[in-house]
Design goal:
By secondary structure, the protein is of the alpha/beta class. It has 8 helices and 11 strands.
Length: 206
């Protein structure tokens, strides 16, 4: 049985459709119910629906053999697993954003509001720039508008939310997209099945 961790929501259903198309369908997952675990013994697959930020944890710890997660989560959590494939969807950017009139003061640390603490820290360390991290869980765009921070580090998809709050992209840190990941032990003991899936998904992209 191959255990697959899927993020709840549209991303997870998109991934399920891709896996079903290559022979790993489990029709029960499409039914209107509150179940979180679905399996099809005939196709040898079991799906878990989990919070997107928890997918990598399930895979790293071996509860799931494979999963799909955004590159932002991999960069932030730095889990010990294999990243097999860029699936090419869920595209966005990790960016530094600031008010239109922002001017950086080189004589003091930059105050950075973000929920992506590690990504922000690594990025500014690469620039040898001292920062003060302000960790927030949501509505990060507000922080520079009320003087809590100078800039924010966050995911930008269309940029509409930034514009509506009089912010703009200051610097792009890294492009983000959905990635197929695998548990290290599973990649050894279920190698044939896992790499067959990765190969078929890659073919479907081309």
């Amino acid at each position: 049985m191959l255990n697959v961790a899927l993020p709840k929501g549209r991303l997870g259903m998109k991934v399920y459709d891709m896996l079903a198309a290559i022979g790993y369908e489990c029709p029960e997952i499409l039914e209107d119910n509150r179940k979180l675990i679905f399996e099809n013994t005939e196709n040898g697959v079991r799906y878990f629906l989990v919070k997107p930020s928890d997918v990598a944890i399930y895979v790293e710890k071996g509860a799931a053999d494979i999963g799909v997660v955004g590159k932002d989560i991999l960069l932030e959590q730095e889990p010990d697993l294999y990243e097999l494939l860029d699936l090419g969807f869920g595209k966005c950017r990790m960016c530094v954003a600031a008010p239109d009139d922002y001017r950086e003061d080189p004589d003091r640390p930059v105050k950075v509001a973000t929920k992506f603490v590690h990504i922000a820290r690594h990025y500014y360390e690469s620039k040898n720039r001292e920062i003060e991290i302000i960790k927030l869980s949501g509505s990060i765009e507000i922080a520079p508008l009320v003087g809590l921070s100078d800039v924010i580090v966050d995911i930008v998809e269309t940029g509409t939310t930034l514009k509506e709050n009089n912010l703009r992209v200051w610097e792009e840190i890294v492009p983000i997209s959905a990635r197929l990941i695998a548990n290290k032990a599973s990649s050894k003991f279920k190698a044939e099945e896992i790499y067959k899936i990765a190969s078929k998904l890659k073919e479907g992209r081309s």
